[in-house]
Amino acid sequence: MDHSLQTAGWEVGAKKIHDKFTLTIPLSHFLGFAEDYKKVIMNGKHELILNRASIDVNCLDLAPVDPNTVPKPPTPNGEIEITRVTWRMPVIKVSDKEKLRLMSYVEGSIPVQIAFRTWELYEYPILPSSERHIWCIKTSTQLEKPRYLIVGFQTARRNDKTKDMSIFDHCNLTNCRVYLNAQYYPYDPFSAEFKTNNYALLYDAFTNFQRSYYSRDHTSPQVNYAHYKTHSPLIVIDTSRQCDSFNSGAGAIDIKLEMEFKENVPANTTAYCLIINDSLFEYNALTSATRKIIQ
Fold first, then answer.
1. Per the omega criterion (within 30 degrees of 0), is the bond before 186 cis?
2. What is the pTM of this model?
3. Of 138, 180, 200, 237, whose Cβ has the fewest other Cβ atoms within 10 Å?
């Protein structure tokens, strides 16, 4: 079975209030394995586990069309009913000559290393109302080094059907830095000032993620400078270029995030941190056994 999963996807047929819609989502949009691993997997069993939230409020934008109307119109209710899910997986058929070569490889019980980048999302439910905070996120192994961290904030948006959960808030952030043990990234502070529209370094790191992650010479960001402030003020920290002495060291890696704000963080603010880290598995095509390599 082919695991060039850039073309794989799952289809959803759903019902929203009285409107029906259908969509296709490539697996590469939310699985690092589907985006990075481009080789064939033989004799493998594949499972896709989807966890659904208990409520649909955070998936809908139910704000009134004109909230300034007097009297104010009632906020509508809505829910999403999934009627069908289809997982589409491409399959490669090879010639008889190539099939014999692959079978001899399988019978040799040669383990195959599967390397890709894993996406892990961490959440800090309620940030303290202070101007500086240190978040101890996790402890990682040497083989699961973080390569990128993407940080975002949302104030009083969860479970509010009048708020758009796809929009993030800058919360007057001035600086953000990640510590991997004693090493920190980035070296220079962002020194942002959103009230005066001085956040060029944050926007530059945001746009450069496309160049670094996909190894491109040029970037084509879909978010301009003004839209970044009002809709997508995400902080991207690139830790992919780690010094050799740090990489060769033994032991665990403590990941801490240091955040500084111009003023106290607004009440009911949630912080999110998406960590993109290395992941390495070993697969045996003869026995279909998969083992995660952690050290």
1. yes
2. 0.83
3. 200
**Which CATH number goes with the domain that contains 141?**
2.70.9.10
- What residue numbers bound the domain in which 23 lies? 1-66+73-108
d(CA 202, CA 214): 19
Same domain, yes or no: 154 and 271: yes
Q: In this structure, how many other beta carbons lie within 10 angstroms of the beta carbon of residue 269?
A: 21
Same domain, 62 and 159: no
Q: One digit per residue, pLDDT tens: the chain, 295 residues? A: 344 444 455 454 544 445 777 888 888 888 888 889 888 888 777 888 888 888 888 887 776 656 666 566 666 677 788 888 888 888 888 888 888 888 887 888 888 888 999 999 999 999 999 999 999 999 988 888 899 999 999 999 888 888 888 899 999 999 999 999 989 999 999 999 999 999 999 999 999 998 898 888 888 888 999 999 999 999 999 998 876 555 444 578 899 999 999 999 999 999 999 999 988 888 888 888 888 887 6
164 and 231 fall within a common domain: yes
